[in-house]
Amino acid sequence: MAPPEVSKINFEAPHYLATALKIHAARERTSVRHVILKALRDGGFAINDADMIEDGRRLRGSNRPH
Predict the structure, then answer these.
(1) pLDDT tens for residues 43-59?
(2) Residue 37 domain-assigned (yes or no)
(3) Angstrom distance (rounded) from CA 24 to CA 22
(4) Using CA atoms, how far apart are residues 52 and 29, in angstroms rounded to an integer?
């Protein structure tokens, strides 16, 4: 199965928000990306379940599905 197409989105955020996102992600043992996608989904944006990867690092290297 081919990985989903992705686009990179860069934006500036206040330092306190970036810090809060990182702390929240660490507490949830997930990625900041997942925290943001979950917030967007909760805000009504359509995001496929397959794109809700909790921690992309798990899919790199030897952990990547074959």
Answers:
(1) 999 999 988 888 765 54
(2) yes
(3) 5
(4) 14
Which candidate, 30, 6, 36, places its Cα nearest to that of 18? 36
Structural domain of residue 20, as residue ranges?
15-56
Closest CA to 33 of 64, 8, 16: 8
Residue type, 2: A
In this predicted model, what pLDDT tens digit does every residue of 23-43 receive, in sequence order? 999 999 999 999 999 999 999
User: Would 28 be classed as within a structural domain?
Assistant: yes
CB–CB of 43/57 below 8 Å?
no
Q: How many domains does the chain have?
A: 1
Q: How far is CA 28 from CA 5, 22, 62, 63, in A?
A: 26, 10, 24, 20
